[in-house]
Amino acid sequence: MKVNNELGYIDITRKAIADIAGNAAMECYGLVGMAHKRGKDGLIEILSGDQANKGVGVIIEDDRLVIDLYVIVEYAIKISVVAENIISNVKYRVEKETSLKVKRISVNVVSVRV
């Protein structure tokens, strides 16, 4: 996605946005890790660190970002509270670090782990 200013433009890739979103989500309490966007054979692999962006989908609609997160949450913690915290933190960090507006963030809970 290109951001224009008086000196030229800044090109921010979807991977860079996914990295920011994945790292912001990983900071949230109750999150065990990220999961692949496409699970194979029902097996779920926990992604963390440098691989966290593989659990993030970024789409651009009307010059705004739509972010899909695929997460694994911790057992015995209210899922809705964890999801709200993830949405809040990801929206804040992405908008602050890229100056792009977020249209929607979807949190897809793939699994619950002890």
Describe this structure in words.
The chain is of the alpha+beta class. Helices cover 29% and strands 36% of the residues. It has two helices and six strands; from the N terminus they run ββαβββαβ. The chain has helices at 14-26, 79-98, and strands at residues 2-5, 8-11, 31-34, 56-61, 64-74, 102-113. α1 packs across α2. The mean pLDDT is 88.
C-alpha Rg (nearest Å): 14 Å
Note the gap between the termini: 38 Å
Residues in helices, as a percent range: 25-40%
The run of helices and strands is: EEHEEEHE
Largest sheet: 4 strands, mixed
Structural class call reads alpha+beta
**How many DSSP-defined strands?**
6
The number of helical runs is 2
Mean pLDDT: 88
Q: Low-confidence parts, pLDDT < 50 over ≥5 residues?
A: none
> How large is the share of residues in beta strands?
35-45%
Any idea what the shape is?
elongated
Task: Outline the secondary-structure elements.
Blueprint: E1 2-5, E2 8-11, H1 14-26, E3 31-34, E4 56-61, E5 64-74, H2 79-98, E6 102-113
Parallel strand pairs: 5-6
Antiparallel strand pairs: 1-2, 3-5, 4-5
Key traits:
2 helices; 114 residues; four-stranded mixed sheet; alpha+beta
In short:
The chain is of the alpha+beta class and 114 residues long. It has helices spanning 14-26, 79-98, and strands at 2-5, 8-11, 31-34, 56-61, 64-74, 102-113.
